[in-house]
Amino acid sequence: MNFGILLFDGVEELDFVGPWEMLTMWSKVAGGPEHCLTVSEASTSVTCAKGLSVHAHFTFDNCPSLDYLLVPGGQGTRREVTNQALLDFVMRQAGHCRAILSVCTGSFILHAAGLLEGRKATTHWASLDRLRELGDVDVVEARYVRDGVIWSAAGVSAGMDLMLAFIAYTAGEAAAGQVQCQSEYYPSDMRYGLFHEDEQAPEYLRDPKWKTTSSS
Amino acid sequence: MNFGILLFDGVEELDFVGPWEMLTMWSKVAGGPEHCLTVSEASTSVTCAKGLSVHAHFTFDNCPSLDYLLVPGGQGTRREVTNQALLDFVMRQAGHCRAILSVCTGSFILHAAGLLEGRKATTHWASLDRLRELGDVDVVEARYVRDGVIWSAAGVSAGMDLMLAFIAYTAGEAAAGQVQCQSEYYPSDMRYGLFHEDEQAPEYLRDPKWKTTSSS
User: Fold this and answer.
1) Catalytic annotation on B104?
2) ipTM strictly over 0.85?
3) At what angle do helices B13-29 and B173-182 cross, to 10 degrees?
């Protein structure tokens, strides 16, 4: 099993490292995919949105056939939605992937690759209206959402919740529990400030007992 | 203001990228440190514990004087606690830093650099006994703990809670709220499996209303 994470200049750091941590922990302690890898268009370093410099394991040309692909977000997505080489790569891999996942504004890349038409999907709270304006996406304000083989998460940190849910769905709650335990992902529920009461806050956040939604 | 994050081979990915995201978001949206940087011993790529390849911005030789230093954990700490060049770097920077922070087993590096004697500190749940065995640390089972200028977090993902608390302490709750909002850090409270009921679970996790502790 090959699980790939797409990188590009301007990718938001936590968008991909959060899921990467959960994914690779799954492989280490609970029988997750044998090969977890990052892939970018060229073999140069990727400069992330906040300045971290990372080197992808593969390029579009030498990347193995993927079983799962995760597309993170970040400011760079605004450029990459018109990068035909990147969209071709996503479409080619999607042809045989068992699931495609996005985090934050990574959903705009899935849309540009033709994968979100008529689908439920979500994105960073500040980009929800922009996703709605595309016209053909059923936008939900959830922490994450699954619609068939397409999974999408809300902004930045939501990728970790997405990946744990994906592991639970794919390999069972015990496997997700092992990953959660080893990564000590029992986050504080502390809310600084009052954004959760703001009218711009996504629906799941305004509901103190937020639920995720999914449809098959 | 310079805020540095220490990197080394075998550093756990989320240990440093979680805080990095919160830190750089603070700089971007709420007046955080002007310079956020990563630093490693040599100018080669750092291979993280789960295989991600990153390139630090500075080496020990050309790193600017830091106001804040964060030391992440990971398997690599077991080697680095005897790396005198790294310990010298930490001690040298600690001499003028306003605060030193650790995540996960990064606390063992702080200890090896002589910074934890008689201090309250914490680490990954699976390393709590090992930290106690050092004999001179007041080990607490909290999500994070502050003891004067020394802050430490529990395992891996706890670095994000630590950094938000650090921002709130340093710059006020409104600043922390802006960072939390932009990184959409409103995590799910979903617990997969039953580790929270296990006797090995850290105290904060067994208490459903866990509190952090701090002493001045």
Assistant:
1) yes
2) yes
3) 110
